[in-house]
Design a protein that fits this description.
heterodimer, A: alpha+beta, Ubiquitin-like (UB roll), FAD/NAD(P)-binding domain, 7 domains, about 25% helix, B: alpha/beta, D-Amino Acid Oxidase, Chain A, domain 2, 2 domains, 8-stranded mixed sheet
């Protein structure tokens, strides 16, 4: 391991704590607080990966994870950002997209073939003749992609999620962000402060200059950080990457846990009143030939390597920069011991005089109006050619480090996501907000400010403005803060977009996708004129770096091209920025396990019942079988011969009451609800505007203007909305309460159900006092109130018992206990399915679908055509379709071969498809195979022979005959006993 | 500024994909919407019908809407006999079109696996499979073990929220590079003389005596006897210009991609219960689409909910994907009809006004083939049989198509 610099006050690594990492099979040492990339760099690793297309060597470039150069495989996880991921002991790190070793890659010859691989080459090749395409397609697939994921991979660690609430969220804990947080917190507001790096400080953190105040900037950062820590209103989240900015100021982020944290990563959704974006700047990559060679890095990268990680980035350095920060970094690195051959500055004037003098004092040659034109060296940097801006003069320098940057560009991603209106500002060369959304503020460097005091002042102003959003009385303070900011230096002139002469063949605009300047021209040449189209065609900015590297240069290059093309009218447009701003693991997004089905009050009882097979039905967990005989013979026969019971707690249950309750019911139900009588249940249905059956259930009148109604299970959630929606323009006075979860329900069915139920109650349950379609409220099992209905869904004497949820288990257990002499058995959904099929009853969604009106299902009798007064939903459609020809109809059928029911979903055909089987089963009760099907109306007559085609049946057919329904007990005698 | 690329620009003119011609005062047909449907219709009008004097009017840039935002999945395992032939022909068209346009549309014939998580879902799939087989389209039902054989990274244990019980495997499907289709068709159309006007907004459609006479744009008036509304998510707005209210709800639908990986997922996998579909693009990204936002709107803004939901769903089904990162999410507009089938109609009720809309989130799959038949319709004023079932009148007659079984009402209540 290279020796680190010592005794720097800005150092974050701990020289005492050594960690081990295994890189390409070798054991290397790093320090605590190193990132994976800095630890590798300290061990002399320069080539971190090979590039996507050309397999070019790639190295450390930005230290902020802005490109895929330092995506590595860590412990089997592909595409880990080595630059921003903290080193942990015994990490196993492998380079990616390498065939051979990073130093010697067998695929690197592709780099020479770039002439044959222009932008979008794959659109023009490989499809002639077409039969060769699959071969090339597989080659392309294998060549594409960066990391490799093993199918057996399982993510380890704890992934949590939190949903913090506060008044203000500040994104970025640099000087502006910290000042903003303090300003808002001082007003008594709760502030959440997010910072991607593991510590606060931003670009003050690694700078030692004290030009503007009496202490170095890193000390100033420490001061502010201490204040943040002391302030109890501020929740500071370090190591937290903001990912999304959604409407109404919903911020998403993820935090990477430190060793002391309970989580590895946690997903965050932060809802606040006001947001401050203080994310600062990143560097705009300099564009020159071979600008991607390992050994070339950005200013802050070199500076932070030394100042934060104690690593001198090279032995002989050249600087080619475009702003004062570059000069400052050169001086500081020189003082730390980095030999600098010369500093080229694209600006011919405008540098801070102090910095120019400083370079002179140190004897560093300073070349104004020069820039880098070419980097040399086959694998890592060996030599650099500098040239004057007009390209007439050249000079070569042997070196192993080129610190290159074209200037700054704002990290304005959060502003774009916040829907701020951004436009290109010619003075700063930044995309700046013209108009901010309400309750969103920007502060600091991303507004073009460079002066440390201005940056802090803008942070304070933003913090106060956010406080004002939250109702704090800070008018005067805002005025003072604004005046202070106006006195301080404003935005600085940005560095120009400069390209040295050349074809742009090896000049990379986008490292992730290996897109060169030439590729951009190629796309433009083809007529892709909109920057977004250029991006899509050339793929520049579509890689994991999220446009960090090409984000700013691409619009400039396209605009430059357009100008040369004679079209200078178009504004310089940014490419679209999309969340997540920083890629996040699916594991992080997924967070904790989410398998929380709804459970009925009887769930625990069911779980203990032998043989219970559960199924997830919508949001519910329900028992489908109580046996592993999936035909459920025993369950069915118990109901037909003795008595059975089923948990139907999932039914929707509602109370509708108030003076206009009846109006509301008349609106949504097709039946005449004025005919509902106390002590009676009325079965009815709801239709949509097409007359299509939406829901069915029973309505009970429990008192004057007071109704209790049920809906089918899967409509339980939407029925309340349905009623409200269809009465939204009426000024009707009624209330609706969803009682679905308040009541459990048990359907007790079978000829002996009365005898059994009678053992639990003194209430007279005889057929005379409680007949079919009757409703009764009474107490059973001592003192448990129950609402009982005599219904006939399954074709037997049966009682649907609605019981307060907490008592449902008690009743179930009592029925089971008392039912033993009656051979009682619980039955599941499949048995219920067969029982009701035998009765020809419809299950919504199974026998009804969007094409079917109430008439098509044979349920037209439910519709009362007389009550037009109430504008019943669907009534016009029911009138219209009543005698319409050529519709699909629901019919019952009996198979010619009684032993062989067709499988559900089989189709009915002749020369065309004519319908399909909804449900078909073998009926033990009838000894036949029966079913319900939708068929075209000309096949719906009784006696019609149906040809049924299952999947994988070829030319074979099954045959059935249309028969009347119900199949079982057509006169309904068994219901009325 | 020193860069030498004058050389490039000189060469440029003759290899332009499409020109930027001036807007003329009249065209034989004006197509509103420079997406897949509009461009395909323009291309086939010029190629098959000899109608070269056609303008495609696009408010933004071509492929800005759904054509560039979909997840590029193609398949022909629809539910109804009306849809199946159209999609089946659409599927067969991709290789032909690749050849014809001399532009690699990158049809990746990987096959689609649709997962079933309940007995009921298997029943619904049987209907689709049997219907496809009846029409001679390859499709089969598979059990959970076979699902795992097809897509080894699936978790077929009881651990997922919705355990996998089986599925429907449809080998002829796959993905097509959606941008390539747009660009290839635009180039093909432009070479046949079609004018593509990007950055041009239609502001009105003029009708006289029940006939279309001209189209107003922000760049000037265009006289034309025929206009096609192929504005996708914005088709309701275009339709409103002429006073026709469409039974269409516009909803935002979101999609996202992960960082690129070496091949790990070799099929299109989808699951209705999870509202989730995923495939690995040729570039190596896993592209995945979500369900629609549950309320109508015209924004293409993403929400926090779906990217999280997608991660939950994908990692539930394919646990190894926990180690992959989402890189980008975006949204498009789905113009949903009540029966999940498109509205293709013309000269009804206004002579010369054609509609190709209501394609929801499935407009990519058969966009090209629809363009072919629509061109025939527009040129001859005779609706081809294959398009006849998609008439707007079916809603008036309450004869919905049944491409989906469940009644869908994309109103404020869901």
């Amino acid at each position: 391991m290279t020796d680190r610099l010592r005794n720097l006050p800005t150092m974050k690594v701990h020289p005492q704590t050594e960690l081990t990492l295994i890189y390409a099979g070798k054991r290397l040492k790093g320090l605590a607080s190193d990132t994976i990339a800095t630890a590798l760099y300290a061990n002399g690793v320069r080539i971190f990966s090979r590039s996507l297309k050309y397999h070019r060597p790639r190295g450390l470039y930005s230290l902020d994870g802005e490109c895929s150069n330092c995506l590595m495989d860590v412990d089997g996880i592909p595409n880990v950002r080595a630059e921003t991921s903290l080193l942990q002991d015994n990490m196993k790190v492998e380079p990616q997209n390498v065939v051979g070793t990073p130093e010697r890659d067998f695929m690197s010859f592709i780099d020479k073939l770039d002439r044959f691989l222009p932008a979008g080459f794959y659109y023009h090749y490989f499809h002639r003749p077409y039969r060769l395409w699959p071969f090339f397609q597989n080659r392309l697939r294998k060549a594409a992609g960066l990391g490799r994921l093993k199918p057996s991979f399982r993510m380890k660690g704890i992934f949590d999620e939190i949903y913090p609430r506060a008044e203000v969220c500040v994104i970025g804990a640099g000087p502006a962000g910290m000042q903003a947080a303090l300003a808002a917190a001082t007003q008594g507001l709760r502030v959440i402060l997010l910072e991607a790096r593991p510590w606060p400080g931003g670009f003050f953190d690694y700078r030692s200059t004290n030009d503007v105040s009496d202490i170095p900037l890193h000390q100033r950062a420490r001061q502010l950080a201490d204040k943040i820590e002391e302030n109890r209103n501020i929740r500071f989240f370090p190591g937290t990457f903001m990912t999304g900015f959604y409407s109404n100021n919903l911020i998403t982020a993820f935090q990477v846990g430190k060793e002391t944290d309970y989580f590895d990563e946690r997903y965050m959704e932060i809802r606040v009143e006001s947001v401050i974006v203080a994310t600062g700047c990143m560097e705009r990559p300099a564009i020159f030939d071979h600008n991607d060679r390992p050994g070339i890095m950005q200013v802050a990268c070199a500076h932070r390597l030394a100042r934060t990680y104690g690593l001198l980035p090279g032995k002989r350095a050249i600087f080619s920069i475009g702003d004062d920060l570059g000069l400052e970094a050169a001086m500081d690195l020189f003082d730390l011991g980095l030999p600098i051959l010369c500093v080229a500055d694209t600006r011919s004037d405008g540098q801070a005089p102090g910095l120019v003098e400083g370079l002179e004092e140190r004897g560093i040659p300073f070349m104004r109006g020069w820039t880098v034109s070419t980097a040399h060296g086959s694998r890592t940097l060996k030599k650099v050619t500098l040239c004057t801006l007009d390209g007439l003069e050249n000079r070569d320098f042997k070196c192993d480090l080129l610190v290159a940057s074209a200037g700054l560009t704002p990290s304005a991603g959060p502003l774009f996501l916040a829907q701020a209106r951004m436009s290109y500002d010619r003075f700063t060369g930044f995309f700046l907000p013209d108009e901010m959304p309400q309750k969103v503020h920007a502060a600091g460097r991303l507004l073009g400010l460079q002066d440390p005091l201005s940056i802090e002042a803008s942070g304070r102003l933003a913090g106060l403005s956010a406080a004002a959003d939250c109702g704090a009385l800070v008018k005067v303070l805002i005025k003072e803060a604004r005046e202070l900011l106006e006195q301080l230096p404003g935005p600085v002139r940005g560095s120009k977009f400069i390209q040295a002469p050349g074809s742009g063949r090896k000049r990379f605009v986008c490292f992730d996708e290996d897109v060169t300047v030439k590729n951009i021209y190629q796309a433009c040449d083809l007529g892709f004129d909109h920057v977004e189209l250029v991006k899509r065609f050339s793929t520049a900015g579509l890689g994991p770096g999220q446009g960090g590297i090409p984000g700013h240069n691409l619009p400039l290059i396209v605009a430059q091209y357009r100008r040369y093309d004679g079209d200078s009218s178009d504004p310089i447009l940014p490419t679209t920025i999309r969340p997540p701003l920083v890629p996040a693991y699916l594991a992080t997004y997924a967070g904790k396990s989410r398998n929380h089905p709804k459970r009925t009050p009887l769930h625990e009882t069911m779980k203990k019942t032998p043989g219970a097979v559960f199924r997830r039905t919508g949001s519910w967990q329900r028992v489908r079988y109580f046996t592993h005989d999936f035909q459920c013979r025993e369950e069915i026969e118990t109901v037909r011969n003795h008595v059975g019971m089923i948990d139907v707690s999932t039914l929707g249950k509602f109370r509708v009451f108030g003076p206009d309750a009846l109006h509301a019911l008349q609106r949504v139900y097709v039946g005449d609800m004025s005919k509902v009588k106390e002590g009676k249940v009325k079965y009815s249905a709801m239709c949509n505007e097409d007359g299509c059956l939406m829901d069915d259930g029973v309505v009970v009148k429990t008192g004057e203007n007071d109704y209790y109604l049920t809906s089918s299970t899967n409509r339980a959630d939407s029925t309340a909305e349905w009623i409200r929606y269809h009465t939204r323009y009426e000024v009707w006075n009624f209330s609706l309460v969803n009682l679905t979860d308040a009541f459990g329900a048990i359907n007790l069915a079978g000829s002996r159900s009365r005898e059994l139920l009678q053992t639990l109650t003194d209430e007279d349950l005889s057929n005379n006092t409680f007949p079919y379609a009757g409703y009764k409220e009474f107490r059973i099992g001592g003192d448990i109130p129950v609402r009982a209905m005599r219904l006939g869904f399954l074709g037997e004497l049966s009682y649907e018992l609605h019981i307060p949820a907490s008592y449902t288990r008690t009743i179930w257990d009592m029925l089971l206990e008392e039912g033993r002499p009656f051979h009682i058995q619980p039955f599941g959904l499949e048995a219920q399915n067969v029982l009701r099929l035998e009765k020809g009853h419809v299950i919504i969604g199974q026998e009804s679908e969007i094409r079917n009106t109430l008439h098509d299902l044979g349920l037209g009798f439910l519709w009362n055509r007389e009550k037009s007064l109430y504008k019943t939903v669907g009534a016009p459609a029911l009138h219209f379709t009543e005698r319409q020809n050529g519709r699909m109809k629901l019919v019952g059928f009996r198979m010619e071969d009684p032993r062989r029911p067709p499988k559900d979903g089989s189709i009915i055909v002749d020369t065309r498809i004519r319908g399909h089987v909804c449900t078909a089963r073998y009926s033990f009760t009838l000894g036949q195979s029966i079913g319900l099907a939708h068929v075209h109306s000309d096949l719906a007559d009784i006696g019609t022979r149906l040809e049924i085609l299952e999947d994988d049946m070829g030319s074979k057919r099954l045959y059935a005959e249309v028969v009347p329904t119900p199949f079982y007990d057509p006169d309904g005698k068994r219901l009325k006993i | 500024m020193l860069c030498r690329f004058t050389e490039n620009t000189k060469k440029a003119k003759n290899k332009l994909m499409w020109q930027r011609p001036p807007l003329k005062g009249s065209y034989d047909a004006v197509i509103i919407g420079g997406g897949l449907h509009g461009l395909a219709t323009a291309y086939f009008l010029a190629r098959n019908q000899g109608m070269n004097h056609v303008a495609v009017i696009e408010k933004r840039y071509i492929g800005f809407g759904g054509s560039g935002r979909n997840t590029a999945i193609v398949r022909a395992n629809q539910r109804t006999k009306e849809n199946l032939p159209l999609y089946a022909e659409g599927l067969e068209l991709w290789p032909k079109l690749t050849d014809e346009l001399d532009f690699n549309l990158m049809f990746f014939n990987c096959g689609n696996l649709n997962l079933a998580h309940s007995e009921a879902a298997l029943g619904s799939m049987r209907l689709l499979v049997a219907s496809a087989q009846f029409h001679g389209i390859k499709s089969e039902l598979v059990d959970a073990k076979q699902c795992k054989e097809i897509v080894p990274i699936l978790d077929i244990s009881d651990l997922p929220t919705y355990p996998i019980m089986g599925g429907m495997y449809h080998p002829p499907g796959g993905t097509v590079r959606h941008d390539a289709v747009v660009w290839g068709l635009a180039r093909g159309a432009a070479r046949l003389g079609v004018h593509i006007h990007q950055g041009t907004e239609v502001t009105g459609i003029n009708v006289q005596n029940g006939k279309v006479t001209s189209v107003e744009t922000d760049k000037g008036k265009i006289h034309t006897p025929r206009v096609l509304n192929a504005a996708g998510g914005y088709s309701t707005l275009v339709s409103a210009m002429i006073g026709i209210r469409l039974p269409v709800h516009v909803l935002t639908i979101q999609a996202m991609v992960t960082e690129p990986l070496k091949p790990i997922l070799h099929h299109v996998v989808s699951s209705g219960a999870y509202h989730c579909y995923a495939n690995q693009t040729l570039k190596g990204e896993i592209a995945t689409g979500a369900h629609m936002d549950p309320w109508p709107n015209y924004t293409t803004q993403v929400s926090a909910r779906y990217i999280k939901h997608q991660a939950e769903a994908l990692t539930d089904l394919m646990p190894c994907l926990k180690g992959v990162k989402f890189m980008r999410s975006w949204a498009g507009l789905a113009d949903m009809t009540p029966d999940m089938a498109p509205i293709i109609d013309g000269n009804n009720p206004i002579q010369g006004y054609f509609m190709d809309c209501g394609w929801g989130y499935f407009g990519f799959k058969s966009g090209a083939v629809t363009g072919k038949y629509l061109a025939e319709f527009m040129a001859s004023d005779q609706c081809p049989d294959i398009l006849a079932p998609f008439t707007l009148r079916r809603y008036e007659n309450h004869k919905l198509m049944g491409e989906i079984a469940n009644p869908v009402n994309y109103g404020p209540w869901n």
